[in-house]
Amino acid sequence: MKQLLIASLLALAATPLLADQPSAACAAKRARIESEISQAQAQGRQQQLAGLQKALRANQSHCTDALLAAERESDIQKATKKVAEREQKLKKAQAKGDPQKIAHQQGELDKARSDLTEAQKPLLP
């Protein structure tokens, strides 16, 4: 009985310590942001740096797995919509037969598909 009481007290004492630990997904996002901050600093991009620092503060104070999942789903939906729009524009360009417009729209579609693939990547590396 005494051992059970001690084990319970230890578990309760450790709970706040565990609550302060960020989830693996939040930690991975934080690491990505920190890497981008280093790149922005190295290249002297002050506006991007300010935005990244703001994102890092938001990650440190508000990041949850549920929030990341919702953001990811939103990003996937936006990227899917963009791919559909780019496909329509490519079809219009193909109907007109202008090789320059076709090439341009194909490039835009390729970029949109790349963005969709990036959005679909799992939260954890």
Put the structure in a nutshell.
With 125 residues, the protein is mainly α.
Give an account of the 3D structure.
By secondary structure, the chain is mainly α. It has 5 helices and no strands. The protein has 2 domains: 22-63; 73-125. The longest helix is centred in the middle third of the chain and has 32 residues, at 65-96. The model is unreliable at 4-19 (pLDDT under 50).
Write the layout of secondary structure elements.
Layout: H1 2-19, H2 24-43, H3 46-62, H4 65-96, H5 99-120
Helix pairs in contact: 2-3, 4-5
Features:
125 residues, mainly alpha, 5 helices, 0% strand, elongated
Q: What is the N-to-C succession of helices and strands?
A: HHHHH
Strand content: under 5%
- Poorly predicted regions are 4-19
Q: Give the tally of structural domains.
A: 2
- Shape assignment: elongated
Report how far the terminal alpha carbons are from each other.
44 Å
Helix content: over 70%
For the secondary structure, the number of strands is 0
Largest sheet: none
The structure class reads: mainly alpha
What is the alpha-carbon Rg in Å?
Answer: 23 Å
Mean pLDDT: 86
Number of H/I helices: 5
